[in-house]
Amino acid sequence: MGIFNFVRSGVREMMIARPDTARHLIVYKHPDRTIPKWAQLTVGADEAAVFFRDGSLVGVLRTAGVGQRHTLDAGNIPFLSKLVDSFTGGNVFVTDLFFVTMRPIRDTKFGGPLPPMKDPELEITVSPRIYGTFQWQIVEPDRFIVNYLGLGQDTSNERVTGFIQTKFMNAVKRTVPEFVIRRSIEVQALPAYHEELGQTFVQRCEDLSDIGVRFLGLGDFTINFSEEELRRIQEAQDRYAVIKAKKRAKDELAEGNYLQYAAGEAMLQANARGGGSGPMEAGMGMGMGVMMAQMYQHVLGNRGGVSGGGGHAVNPSPPVNNPQASGGKGGAVTCPSCGAQVPPGKFCAECGASLTPQPKPCTNCGALIPVGAKFCSECGTRAPI
Questions:
Q1: E strand map for the chain
Q2: What is the pLDDT of residue 59?
Q3: Of 134, 144, 224, 292, which sits 20 to 30 A from 72 (CA to CA)?
């Protein structure tokens, strides 16, 4: 039975409301453009009913109260007079009726790749990804339909939220690079700033009051990297660790710790070439370190030494005899590493270890004690014999 049959038969009451099957929709459009006079309209507490006629906004109704309905009559709702269809003698309203949800919309998803940004610590460019949710609310339903959604038939949640998601993601894309630059933090440390970033995202969102929308806050979110990006970050961290180790060694050199610097530099170079870790490789690295230390001491000694805290020159350690490397037959010497009798020289002809007297580690603190020193310069323990 059509709407006109309702009117002709004297049935004055018709129930109009959002059906239960459409409760999940942010915007629901009533399917019938003709509504009989005295129909009973139910508007939920968390929604609004918006009336249009010929593309123009006519009026908005909110809930009439718990368990109450609006009786559609121009006598008690004046703006309905603009919807009256004269062809039916004023018994029918012609309108496009929308039910618009006004409760906060939670768990709206956003995400995707962020713009490439330079890590201030590792000095590499990376492209992190972000995924999460946010909350928003329609506060002016008439503005939302007029200035954004329009009167079309597509009122799906995907279309309704598409523009809102784009606006929020744009704020995120602007905020993260600026945050990294301003705070000078490593990009991979961004997840540790979860709360501060979330507040900044909402603050940087565009004002959407022109379409009757406001952002309420940020839900949970994660920042992560692709496997390729993680590999690049790890490689950069490894390189940075080597650079920091060398810098510390050079700082020690500036303080006069020649042996520690030379030995550490030689080991770093040996590892860079092949990463050998056996006794022979360690001995060769240590020997190279001692030779470098002696070279630095010789050069600085020719220049007048390095002034200590009291203004006195720091002289190289006095030469000492090495009983292991001077007691062989026919001019041969004993290698301190493998014990073989080999011709005199800088390195052992059998194992390649240095024949130069080596510094020994302190039995108490482990620091290297220069050849000829009687006590450890770090803790004062007597040098091992």
A1: 15-16, 27-29, 34-36, 40-41, 47-53, 56-61, 70-71, 92-94, 96-101, 105-113, 117-118, 125-126, 129-138, 213-224, 306-307, 313-314, 333-334, 341-342, 360-361, 368-369
A2: 97
A3: 144
